[in-house]
Design brief:
By secondary structure, the chain is α/β, with parallel strands linked by helices. It contains 17 helices and 15 strands. The strands form four sheets. A seven-stranded parallel sheet has the order 5-6-7-8-9-10-11. Strands 3-2-1-15 form a four-stranded antiparallel sheet, with helices on both faces. The longest helix has 18 residues. Helix 2 crosses helix 14, helix 4 packs across helix 6 and helix 12 runs parallel beside helix 14. It is globular and about 60 Å long. 52% of the residues are buried. Bound molecules: 2-succinylbenzoate and magnesium ion (MG). Magnesium ion binds next to loops.
Length: 426
């Protein structure tokens, strides 16, 4: 098994040779994972995203832009319902090229403490000046500059995304290839919000299964859980089915949650508090079903702790939540070495964030279907062309063109823009 894992690891990730190496790697890092990883990989030339073989990139301008897109249908979770998405795009300009990124923060601090407003502030006043102060030599260089600012992972990630699109264009290779991705197509699932009625939910399930999606995830909350899941499972005995509670329960609900063990679920995502690991470990010890952590995994150290404590058996990686590609790659490497399956979560991204998720999910460790749906699942028109499409076998093709592999639809973006702010090199 270990050999199999090693054999399928891309060259760029082979600097983590075993689970023990990976564990030491994260344990020793205590607060400075990046420099640790940089040291570790100093001799690995096939890691352009860490220590770039390219000339340093002198960023001339960073543009922050908000764009409001209506959602095809309201999206309801245990923390509320939204019917439009304020998309926060960043573009990074250098040498006549533009790299695109997305800050996935929402308007209100419900899923995370970050909001569009806090991210604008932190990028404007701290991260952009750090990025513009001198040419960026590598992803590691950028991440090291950002590491001196605490938290605000979605803000950091937005800029790392834009930088990685730009770096891939400069290197004339796909983003997937730049980060060591190996998959040519990625399997995907769909996340279904809480519906007004069970009949409407059952309709949605039918529709997305007919579209080919490989896994159905149901949002749950107290009052919309056991009976709903029982009925979906009764009608679809064989499908890959999971649930996501977005922290709607406490440990005192353990007997209630234990009933979910009857439905052969792939996982129960984030049942307990958003920053908890301890109670999840207690819950996992009494559940047959795997717990998957989303909100609680805010970075590589938390991923290591969650696995060591037995807080979960599966990890959801969102580039925004963990602070960018630098951190997502570390978590991926670690989980891969430990044999913990990971999958790529979603944040109702526009096509820009969605395209980055596709590249991330092309890494070998992403063995479970991601929450990466077609553009049309959320938006009647997306900000990129071509749109993201899901084939009838429930997979999305990983682009091979240089950079993101999708084009920003500038006219459409401009027509829906709410605010623009330009940050320039001194
Ligand atoms: O918990 O995974 C989540 C959307 C917004 C915030 C948090 C979550 C979600 C989703 C939808 O479940 C995933 C997607 O399709 O983008
Ligand atoms: Mg979730």
């Amino acid at each position: 098994m270990a050999d199999e894992v090693a054999a399928s690891l891309p060259q760029v990730l082979q600097n983590v040779n075993s689970a023990t190496d990976a564990a030491n790697f994260l344990a020793n890092a205590s607060g400075d994972l990046l420099s640790c990883r940089a040291m570790h990989s100093a001799s690995v030339t096939a890691a352009p995203w860490l220590n770039s073989a390219n000339d340093p990139i002198a960023i001339e301008k960073i543009e922050m832009r908000t764009v409001r897109l209506p959602l095809n249908e309201p999206f309801e979770t245990s923390f509320g319902s939204i019917d439009s998405r304020l998309i926060f795009l960043v573009s990074i300009h250098a040498d006549g090229l533009t790299g695109w990124g997305e800050v996935v923060a929402a308007e209100e601090p419900r899923y995370s403490y970050e909001t569009v407003g806090t991210a604008q502030h932190v990028i404007r006043d701290y991260l952009a000046p750090a990025m513009l102060s001198q040419p960026v030599t590598s992803l590691n260089d950028l991440a090291t500059r950002f590491a001196s600012f605490r938290g605000h992972n979605m803000a950091k990630a937005g800029l790392e995304l834009g930088y990685m699109d730009l770096l891939s264009q400069v290197s004339n290779q796909s983003l997937s290839k730049t980060i060591g991705g190996t998959r040519v197509r990625i399997p995907v699932g769909v996340s279904l919000g809480i519906q007004p009625t069970l009949a409407q939910l059952l309709d949605r399930v039918e529709k997305y299964l007919a579209d080919g999606y490989r896994r159905i995830k149901l949002k749950i909350k107290p009052g919309w859980d056991i009976d709903v899941v029982r009925e979906v499972r009764r009608r679809h005995p064989k499908i890959m089915l999971s649930v996501d509670a977005n922290s709607a329960y406490t440990l005192s609900d353990q007997d209630h949650l234990k009933q979910l063990d009857d439905f052969d679920l792939l996982m129960i995502e984030q049942p307990l508090n958003h920053d908890d690991l301890i109670d999840h470990a207690r819950l996992q010890s009494i559940l047959k079903t795997a717990i998957c952590l989303d909100e609680s995994i805010t970075g590589p150290a938390r991923a290591r702790q969650a696995i060591e404590l037995g807080s979960c058996r599966i990890i959801n990686i969102k580039i925004g939540r963990v602070g960018g590609y630098s951190q997502a790659l570390l978590i991926h490497d670690f989980c891969f070495a430990k044999g913990t399956p990971v999958w790529c979560g979603g944040m109702l991204e526009s096509g820009i964030g969605r395209a980055h998720n596709i590249s991330l999910a092309s890494l070998s460790g992403f063995s479970l279907p991601g929450d990466i749906s077609a553009s049309s699942r959320y938006f009647s028109r997306d900000v990129i062309f071509p749109e993201v499409q899901v084939a009838t076998d429930g997979t999305i093709e990983v682009p091979t063109q240089p950079g993101l592999g999708f084009n920003a639809d500038i006219d459409y973006i401009h027509s829906h823009t709410q605010s623009v702010e330009c940050l320039e090199a001194p």
